[in-house]
Every structure is written in structure tokens, then in C-alpha cells.
Amino acid sequence: MRKDSPDKLKIEASADKISAAGAKMLKMHLNDMLQIKKILTKKQFEKLTIMMEEDKKSREAKKEKTEK
Fold it and tell me: CA 40, 44, 48 angle in degrees (round to 5)?
């Protein structure tokens, strides 16, 4: 992108690699959560998901604060 005439095919290939890596990570996370769900009780799993949501909100709030 820094070049005057960037190579569109290389940029698209990089974007595809990044997207594939993101999809792979998401699938790994989903598989992990399914395995965890098999082990925990329903109440424990609910508590875990609530804690994860709170953590995500906290990280997003910190990110917004640093971006200002």
C-alpha cells in the first residue's frame, strides 16, 4: 500500500491469509467452548460466559479510552 502502484494481487492474498487465520482461530475457540461446556455444569457455564462478556466489555472500554 505504501508504493505508488501497490500490487493488488499481493494485497488480496495477504487479506485472504489474515481472514483464513481469523476463521481458524474462531473455529478453535468454538471447539474449546464446546469441550468446556461438556465438562461444566449448566450454572458454571453460564457464569463463565457472563465473566467472558464482562471481560470483553472491560477490554473494549479500555480500548475506547486509549483511542481518545
Answer: 105
